[in-house]
Amino acid sequence: MRSSLLSQFSANKPFAPRSRSVGFTLIELLVVIAIIAILAAILFPVFAQAREKARQTACLSNQKQIGIAVMMYAGDYDEGVVPWISAGAPGETRAQRLWSGKLQPYVKNGGTFPASGVFECPSWSEEKVKQSANATTCDGPGALDAYFPMLEYYSSYGIAFQGETPSGTGTQADPIYQFPGSYGYPPPPTSTGVTRYLTEIARPAEQIIIDDAGTWVGGGYFLITFGCEGADMHTGGANQIFLDGHAKWLARDPQRYLAQRADGKYIQKYFYWPE
User: Fold this and answer.
1) Is 140 exposed, middle or buried (0-12, 13-18, 19+ CB in 10 A)?
2) What is the DSSP code (8-state) at residue 49?
3) What is the Cα–Cα distance from 58 to 71, expressed in whole angstroms?
């Protein structure tokens, strides 16, 4: 009886094997996750570099406009280099006393307080300035700690100070440098201030006047960082503005580039203007 019932059941409804469900095994899933992780590790740095490159380009565009403003200022002031700070006329604000405020009439895009427009770099950060400044080849560990946090932020860029006399002994380890900046107090003999003129600059196309570093108030002082402090601002280097008005990117610390004078002594190529 049982066998006949089974036969009848089989005849009426043929047996069909159960289909196997399709899906990932644990091993296959782990392999897929590993491949995605490897691709992410490869691509994310590429995307980050692309974003930074775009910021670097935007920053360089800002600096080209500032370079033109430096030349326009010189044209209006007997070829004088814009001073990093001045004593201030009655009613002048701190922003107007600083170099960024003095160039504002020529760019009309920023130059006031707080930093904005062409005077603000999208890549700038306190951390990057500290990182460069802390290097033993720059200011040294903790040298700028007392000036942070910033109290008043005026610009992502720093300008050259007045270089009244050369510094350095002329060896490769201690090259000679003399910044080509101006000091905006009345020039000698009424004070010790120095106004630098373009006619004094021997190699204007090789003399850096403004770079990626910063201008702010911190620790009770106006602070301008210029030179080695901007070395890590853009993909292992920094944008520089030269005294002929052009701007370009230089790898790493701009003060590491050396040249030799006729007497064999070493100079900082981009920071020594007399010859």
Assistant:
1) exposed
2) H
3) 21
